[in-house]
């Protein structure tokens, strides 16, 4: 076959460069757009990835089609056909990203099916030569095991740094990876490699470099369509260099002078795809986790190592294989050694085990708490909490009994809950369908689980100077005047925090920890004493009860629970902490039988929300907040940081009428641009605003940091409630009366449009932006009655 002329080659190079850019840019822009929408709390339209796929197919397909039809060179035409087919495969597979990431198992099943159908159709349309090639006595029988060995080497970084999901998720990932490998075998068939000199030992460089480059661009197209949004980013780095490896594996010749065929392609690409598909949760490849060495960091590291490994293997195979091919025994032995090595890597430095999502089964019947007596005062409140706890547990025990027995019979691990009548269950789509069909079940949600990291994410420590007196935000709301003029500091009141944890050793918080064996709970890691790696919980608790001028109620006690791990949670762990707040229990205790409702905190501060990405729906925590309201426990919640968009208060529990929802203002008493806004159907939100921009508070390790957010504003309002109830114990448990005083004593704030926000700033009125106004601690405590 004569070499192609310079013009077709130049055209192919230019089209190849264009293809790489036309693939990488839309994939990156599409993912970033999703992350911006997620961080902004906005709806993510399903048309993002279909549009990205269509744009890429057109941008790549047109020049690839011209290459496939116009040049006389067989190699250039084969290049065009491969890239055109790859673009079409990208378009077809990319449409599957319309399946929400929370339903990852369904996506993997669809990917396996659609990729298999794509391979069958492509083989017929392209008339692909999928024969394996003859195997001669010169040693090419070892080529396929060598491909397997290379694939296992590419898999090693994922075995080391990644973590598997659930069993079904892993099996489906393997099936999907196999199907994608089959597609690659069709696109890069025997005929394709023959055009680049496969079977001609005098031209290995053209095969490895030329054919490998073309194959790499084809695999780039395939990678861009494979995996939920986020997982494909790793494959865009690790899969294209496999093209050079495939070229090297096709370089050896047999006695018949044929390429070695499809098997090396299928094995190598399948294993290369399996790593990112199985060992990466796409929901965790998110900017929400990018502030520390979390999943995005480790995926990037793993992909970088995979890229380096693929390039080293390409050079090694490209130099050695055209000269001498190891026999089958040697190659098979190499595969066996790598299997053992991979197992050891996974079991020792890796993260062994299955870490899939679980299901939260919400039952139809919830406890009836409407007639719980609203007895005022501390003693009356304790009696109300005990009655609420009794009714909740009785309802859950009675209505869950049949389902629990059936789950035990099927050996499905499960955890019952009473605060919301629900059960968390191990299971995939089939179990979910069965549970949804049961008459006592209202709905089944996915309860997200974070996969473990190869190394701790690290502890956030503040770099700001310590306080020198009451902070500006404390002075703005008049808390310092409450201490000095009214002699009230929150003594006798306990504030409970569900957050990332609390550093109990911080100088401003150590003396306030309530202590005992029922003041701390960590459902994530089971720690026995308060700790916090993120710093978020320590900062918020400091603003509520911290001493030295950072906290509103420095004389109050605190209890804590970890409901956020690495800045993400799930509905089950939110319930774990909320149940602990209603009826604390000792380490290892059963929440149903060992709860101590009389030890419930008086006020709860909640600087978190449960969005759909974590598995929540709008009503999932509604019974929980209703129970606290009936029990006389005051619940304060952050509005969220997705302003200035209207109707952006949407993640539970902030939209609920029975929680006090808090927005944020800056030093100028203006509502911050990030503070989420109403309207909320059926209720006015936010209720109040508090200082939330540039707030100094405690951080783990004894440090301090200045942070922004409605998270920072919320604990200050919780602290004001602690001051009010400390000043007048008769008000303890009077949730409605306390809310009324807080609203009536609030001061007006400026809700003028933020820069560029005129279109959405009013949101139907000032009340939907600033609520009743800025909380006034001094006026509220005086109104409460000192």
UniProtKB/TrEMBL annotation:
Catalytic residue list: 499 (charge relay system), 536 (charge relay system), 711 (charge relay system)
Single GO MF annotation: serine-type endopeptidase activity
Every Peptidase S8/S53 domain range: 490-748
UniProt-listed GO biological process terms: proteolysis
Gene3D superfamilies for the chain: Peptidase S8/S53 domain
Keywords: Hydrolase, Membrane, Protease, Serine protease, Transmembrane, Transmembrane helix
One Pfam family here: Peptidase_S8
Keyword Transmembrane assigned: yes
Tree of life domain: Bacteria
Region feature Disordered, mapped onto this chain: 515-547
Transmembrane portions of the chain: 46-70, 82-100, 106-127, 139-160, 172-194, 206-225, 231-251, 263-280, 295-318, 330-348
Keyword Transmembrane: yes
Family: Belongs to the peptidase S8 family.
Protein name: Subtilase family protein
Organism: Micromonospora echinospora (Micromonospora purpurea)
């Amino acid at each position: 076959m004569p070499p192609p002329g310079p013009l077709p080659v130049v055209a192919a190079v230019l089209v190849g460069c264009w293809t790489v850019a036309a693939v990488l840019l839309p994939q990156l822009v599409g993912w970033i757009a999703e992350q911006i929408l997620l961080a902004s709390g906005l709806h993510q339209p399903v048309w993002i990835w279909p549009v990205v796929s269509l744009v890429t197919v057109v941008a790549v397909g047109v020049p690839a089609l011209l290459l496939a039809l116009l040049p006389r060179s067989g190699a250039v035409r084969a290049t065009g056909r491969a890239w055109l087919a790859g673009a079409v495969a990208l378009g077809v597979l990319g449409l599957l990203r319309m399946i929400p990431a929370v339903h990852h198992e369904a996506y993997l099943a669809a990917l396996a099916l659609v990729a298999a159908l794509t391979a069958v159709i492509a083989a017929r349309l392209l008339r692909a030569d999928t024969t394996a090639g003859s195997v001669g006595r010169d040693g090419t029988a070892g080529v396929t095991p060598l491909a397997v060995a290379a694939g296992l080497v590419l898999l090693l970084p994922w075995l080391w740094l990644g973590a598997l999901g659930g069993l079904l998720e892993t099996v489906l990932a393997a099936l999907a990876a196999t199907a994608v490998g089959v597609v690659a075998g069709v696109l890069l068939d025997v005929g394709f490699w023959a055009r680049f000199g496969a079977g001609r030992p005098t031209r290995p460089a053209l095969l490895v470099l030329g054919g490998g480059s073309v194959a790499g661009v084809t695999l780039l197209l395939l990678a861009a369509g494979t995996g939920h949004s986020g997982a494909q980013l790793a494959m865009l780095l690790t899969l294209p260099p496999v093209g050079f490896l495939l070229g090297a594996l096709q370089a050896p010749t047999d006695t018949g002078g044929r390429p070695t065929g499809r098997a090396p392609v299928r094995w190598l690409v399948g294993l290369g795809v399996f790593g990112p598909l199985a060992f990466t949760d796409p929901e965790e490849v998110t900017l929400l986790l990018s502030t520390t060495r979390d999943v995005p960091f480790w995926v990037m590291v793993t992909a970088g190592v995979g890229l380096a490994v693929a390039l080293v293997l390409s050079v090694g195979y490209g130099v050695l294989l055209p000269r001498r091919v190891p026999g089958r025994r040697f190659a098979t032995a190499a595969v066996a050694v790598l299997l053992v090595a991979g197992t050891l890597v996974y079991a020792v430095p890796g993260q062994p085990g299955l870490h899939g999502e679980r299901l939260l089964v919400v039952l139809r019947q919830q406890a009836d708490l409407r007639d719980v007596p609203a007895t005022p005062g501390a003693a009356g409140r304790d009696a109300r909490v005990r009655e609420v706890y009794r009714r909740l547990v009785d309802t859950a025990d009675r209505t869950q009994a049949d389902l629990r027995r059936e789950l035990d019979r099927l050996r499905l691990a499960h955890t019952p809950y009473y605060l919301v009548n629900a059960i968390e269950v191990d299971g995939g789509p089939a179990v979910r369908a069965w549970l949804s069909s049961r008459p006592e079940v209202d709905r089944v949600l996915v309860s997200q689980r974070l996969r473990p990291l190869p190394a701790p994410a690290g502890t956030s420590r503040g770099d700001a100077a310590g306080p020198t007196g009451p902070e500006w935000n404390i002075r703005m709301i008049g808390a310092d005047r409450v201490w000095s003029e009214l002699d009230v500091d929150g003594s006798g009141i306990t504030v409970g925090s569900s957050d990332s944890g609390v550093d109990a050793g911080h100088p401003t918080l150590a003396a306030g920890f309530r202590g005992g064996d029922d003041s701390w709970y960590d459902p994530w890691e089971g720690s026995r004493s308060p700790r916090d790696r993120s710093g978020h919980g320590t900062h918020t608790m400091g603003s509520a009860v911290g001493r030295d001028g950072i906290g509103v109620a420095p004389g109050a006690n605190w209890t804590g629970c970890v409901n956020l791990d690495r800045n993400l949670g799930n509905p089950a762990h939110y319930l774990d902490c909320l149940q602990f707040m209603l009826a604390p229990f000792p380490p290892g205790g059963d929440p149903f039988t060992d709860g101590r409702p009389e030890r419930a905190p008086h006020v709860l501060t909640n600087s978190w929300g449960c969005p759909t990405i974590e598995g929540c729906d709008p009503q999932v925590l509604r019974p929980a907040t209703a129970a606290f309201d009936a029990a006389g426990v005051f619940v304060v919640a952050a509005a969220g940081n997705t302003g200035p968009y209207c109707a952006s208060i949407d993640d539970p529990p902030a939209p609920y009428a029975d929680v006090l929802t808090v927005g944020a203002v800056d030093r100028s008493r203006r509502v911050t641009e990030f503070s989420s806004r109403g309207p909320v159907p059926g209720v006015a939100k936010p209720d109040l605003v508090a200082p939330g921009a540039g707030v100094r508070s405690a951080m783990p390790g004894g440090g301090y940091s200045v942070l922004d957010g409605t998270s920072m504003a919320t604990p200050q309002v919780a602290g004001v409630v602690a001051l009010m109830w400390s000043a007048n114990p008769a008000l303890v448990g009077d949730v409605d009366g306390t809310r009324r005083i807080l609203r009536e004593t609030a001061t007006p704030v400026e809700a003028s449009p933020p820069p560029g926000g005129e279109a959405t700033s009013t949101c139907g009125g000032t009340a939907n932006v600033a609520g009743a106004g800025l909380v006034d601690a001094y006026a509220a405590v005086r109104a409460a009655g000192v």
